[in-house]
Structures are given as structure tokens and as C-alpha cells.
Write a structure and sequence with these properties.
Blueprint lengths: L1 E5 L4 H12 L3 E6 L11 E4 L5 H8 L4 E4 L7 H14 L4 E5 L11 H15 L4 E6 L10 H5 L3 E2 L13 H13 L7 E4 L7 H12 L4 E2 L4 H8 L5 H17 L7 H9 L6 H18 L1
Parallel strand pairs: 1-2, 1-4, 2-3, 4-5, 5-6, 6-8, 7-9
Helix pairs in contact: 1-6, 2-3, 3-4, 7-11, 8-9
Length: 290
């Protein structure tokens, strides 16, 4: 069985490839260009999700598609091109990387794109499985400066919070679904244990850093303005709408989610506290090496 992996050089996709390699899976990776991020030991197909010719060529001879496409203004077009071609070629299985509670966030651009792709998956007859992760714990690995220099936890998670999930658990669950039977037609909500609110995150980092870390609060206008300094305006708005949805509608694991993921993984999902501790240790090692 050969698996075509899209998005395999990104944060989540690269971890999925590692997990697939552990399972000795036969992998073909769709990349725009080969570079240092391209993992060793996998077959590479050079192409672009907006180029149907290259996507169809990459899909020839594979049995399964792992469809992970980046958050972009044309995410829906990219996803449907890959799906439509997989349908045409009668692939045996598609595993689609969506997002938790997607049907409750129809006003968030990249959630709306994922919901449309989910709807297409459900409408036609290609066997599929949907992976729906929560907020990534690893999103906070980029917060060294605000945490250590400004003593602020800046992500507007609110007082209700999210069930943050570790990327390594997402990758492991995805690889299991891609390489074993019994997952067709299923949708897996991937949530971590516990609930991470803004104040809770600030408390966790306060203990690790040995100083008071404040929660920046839920001023989404200020959050979007800050994001526009490092991201395109459309992206800053999209992410702002996502966090607005978190605050209004919640992003906490549903009944049975943790039990289902634990059974799928064969172990308990990783805690945010453990990710934070590992990240703090890495920051310390980098500081010593500098």
C-alpha cells in the first residue's frame, strides 16, 4: 500500500511522515520543491495542489491519500482538486485533516473551507476518515519572547479555554488510521487532556519560568493588529475569527473524545504541561549554547 502525503514538510505533516516511517509505510510526498525539509527515505513527487496535472501524476499508483493542505486563501480549491482527482482515480482511502468543531465555526474562513471539503467527502463514495484536531500545544512554542521578555501569555484563549492537543499525538493517530483497518467512515476528534484557558496557561508558564506571567486578555482588536506585523492581513483576520469563535462557542473536548483517542493511540494523550516543560528545557539548552 502506497500513501500520498500532502503537507508533509509542515509542522504536523513532518511528524506524520516520521510516524509512517516507523511503521515502514510506503510513502510518496507531494512537495513544491525538494529542499532540506524533505525527509530522507521517501519517494518525492514535485507538484502543486493548484496544478491538477501534477496532482494527478502524484496520485497515480497510490492507494491512499493523506490530505493536509495549508491555511491559504485558496485552501478550498486546493483541497477539492486533490479530492476530485482521488475520486476520479478511485483511491481506496482518503484521510482528511480537518479541525475540531468545524461545523460550529462557519464564519471562520479556513474552517469553512474544511467543512466544505468534509461535505464533499461525505457525499461521494470514496472511503474516508476525518481527523479533527483541537488547538495545537506546539502553537505556543513560538511564544518565547512574550513569555520570557514581556512576561505575558498573549494567546486569547479566554476563561473557558480549549482542549489543546500535542502534534505528536495527532501524527501518531493519523499514522495509525493510515496504516490499519477499521477506520473507514469515522471522524476522530483529537483533543488533549484537561482544559487550557488563558489564565491557566499563564499559571503554567509562571511556575516554569519562576516569575509572574500575566494573561494578556481577550482584546481581539489588539491581537489582530499585532498579528498583522508578522502575517498577511487576511491571515491575521482569519486567525482572529478563530479565536473569537473559541471565546463565543468554546473548544473543549466532547463526551467520549479522550477515551476514543486513548484507545486509538494505546496510551493517554500528552498534557500541555508536559509540552511546556519540554519546551522550557529546549529554550534553556539553546540559551546555554548561544
Amino acid at each position: 500500500m502506497k500513501i500520498l502525503v500532502t503537507g508533509g514538510t509542515g509542522r504536523v505533516g513532518a511528524e506524520v511522515v516520521k510516524e509512517l516511517q516507523k511503521r515502514k509505510a510506503e510513502i510518496r510526498l507531494l512537495v513544491r520543491t525538494e529542499d532540506d525539509r524533505t525527509p530522507k527515505g521517501v519517494e518525492v513527487a514535485v507538484g502543486d495542489l493548484l496544478d491538477p496535472v501534477s496532482v494527478q501524476k502524484a496520485l497515480h499508483g497510490v492507494d491512499t491519500l493523506y490530505l493536509l493542505n495549508a491555511v491559504t486563501p485558496d485552501e478550498l480549491t486546493q483541497g477539492l482538486i486533490a479530492y476530485d482527482l482521488a475520486k476520479r482515480l478511485k483511491l481506496k482511502h482518503i484521510v482528511y485533516h480537518s479541525v475540531f468543531r468545524v461545523e460550529h465555526f462557519k464564519d471562520v474562513p479556513h474552517f469553512a473551507s474544511k467543512l466544505a471539503i468534509e461535505n464533499a467527502l461525505r457525499q461521494f463514495d470514496v472511503p474516508f476518515t476525518i481527523i479533527r484536531p483541537n488547538y495545537f500545544s506546539q502553537n505556543d512554542a513560538t511564544l518565547k519572547d512574550p513569555l520570557t521578555k514581556a512576561s505575558i501569555y498573549p494567546m486569547p484563549l479566554g476563561d473557558v479555554g480549549v482542549s489543546a492537543v500535542d502534534i505528536r499525538d495527532i501524527a501518531e493517530a493519523t499514522a495509525i488510521v493510515l496504516t490499519s483497518d477499521g477506520h473507514t467512515g469515522k471522524t476522530y476528534n483529537l483533543n488533549g487532556p484537561g482544559v487550557l484557558s488563558g489564565p491557566k496557561a499563564a499559571s503554567i508558564w509562571s511556575k516554569l519560568l519562576g516569575k509572574e506571567i500575566g494573561y494578556a486578555g481577550d482584546d481581539l482588536d489588539a491581537f489582530e493588529e499585532q498579528m498583522r506585523k508578522t502575517a498577511p492581513s487576511w491571515s491575521a483576520f482569519d486567525i482572529r475569527m478563530m479565536f473569537e469563535g473559541y471565546l463565543e462557542r468554546g473548544f473543549i473536548a466532547e463526551d467520549g473524545d479522550l477515551e476514543t483517542l486513548t484507545k486509538l493511540l494505546g496510551h493517554s494523550p500528552r498534557r500541555y504541561e508536559d509540552f511546556a516543560k519540554e519546551t522550557f528545557v529546549k529554550w534553556q539548552e539553546l540559551s546555554k549554547a548561544a
